[in-house]
Amino acid sequence: MKNDVTRRQILGAAGATLAAGAMSAALGAEGAEPQSPGKRLKILGFGCSPRTESTTAAAVQVALDAAKAVDPEKVDVELIKLAGLRINGALAAGIPLEPGEQDDFPSLSSKLADPAVAAIIIGSPVYFANMSSLCKAFLERLIMFRKDGFKLSNKVAGVLAVGGARNGGQELTITSIQTALFGQEMIVVGESRPTAHFGPGVWNSKEFEKITDDEVGMAAVKNLGRRVAEVARLVVRG
């Protein structure tokens, strides 16, 4: 019996070692050279603030920069600001545009339809503990991809939110956006370690000269960008 237990312990330890080695090889050890997938992948970042020069877009850019740093030679990133765009959510319900009404969503859908897009990062300001109306309209219009055979299925998604207080509804906003993305069969991820939560809740404090002065929030934002890129690379590898 003692020998049986010893063998089980040895086999268990060996299995754990192999599993840890496989995970390390897949994700890459911290500080090691990143392992590139066989083809390039693109990550789109959407800043869903109605303000042209917004702290939300700046935070999304930080996440994109962290994502690209995972594998600079194979990861391409692009920030898309929704500010100033006309996105009518009513079209998702089949309600036609009014004569002469502008709709800018097709320019966004064409970018999302690019086969190279493996992941997206969505950032929204917090308005009354939830996403902006612009973000909601954008998510509603994504129904076209669901109706067209779930074309966003298995693409990776990460979410961040920027609020006027440290605990100003960021988590509620994040989970609300994530819920919509689950309906697209997307692979929704949170931050990577050491923060590893739902997603970055960034504080747009009046005491900060710029959003990047929120060191706690920026650490989480970078972890989100890294996690999105890591998972996207694993999915692309297949």
Rg over CA atoms, rounded to whole Å, is: 20 Å
What would CATH call the class? Alpha Beta
CATH architecture identity: 3-Layer(aba) Sandwich
Q: What is the total domain count? A: 1
The CATH topology: Rossmann fold
Query: Number of helical runs?
Result: 7
The percent of residues in helical segments reads 40-55%
CATH homologous superfamily label: Flavodoxin domain
Order of helices and strands: HEHEHEHHEHEEH
This entry's quaternary arrangement is single chain
Mean pLDDT: 88
What share of residues are in beta strands?
15-25%
Regions with little confidence, pLDDT below 50 for 5+ residues: 1-37
End-to-end separation: 43 Å
By secondary-structure content and strand pairing, the structural class works out as alpha/beta
Structure summary, number of beta strands: 6
Could you give a short account of the major beta sheet?
Answer: 6 strands, parallel
Shape: globular
Helix/strand layout:
Blueprint (H helix, E strand, L loop, with lengths): L1 H26 L13 E7 L7 H16 L4 E7 L23 H8 L4 E9 L7 H9 L1 H5 L8 E8 L6 H13 L4 E2 L12 E3 L11 H23 L1
Question: What do you see in this structure?
Answer:
The protein has 238 residues and is α/β, with parallel strands linked by helices. The chain has a single domain, classed as 3-Layer(aba) Sandwich (Rossmann fold), CATH 3.40.50. The protein contains 7 helices and 6 strands. The chain has helices spanning 2-27, 55-70, 105-112, 133-141, 143-147, 170-182, 215-237; strands at residues 41-47, 75-81, 117-125, 156-163, 187-188, 201-203. Strands 1, 2, 3, 4, 5 and 6 form a 6-stranded parallel beta sheet that branches. β1 (41-47), α2 (55-70) and β2 form a beta-alpha-beta unit. α2 packs across α7 (215-237). It is globular, with a radius of gyration of 20 Å. The termini are far apart.
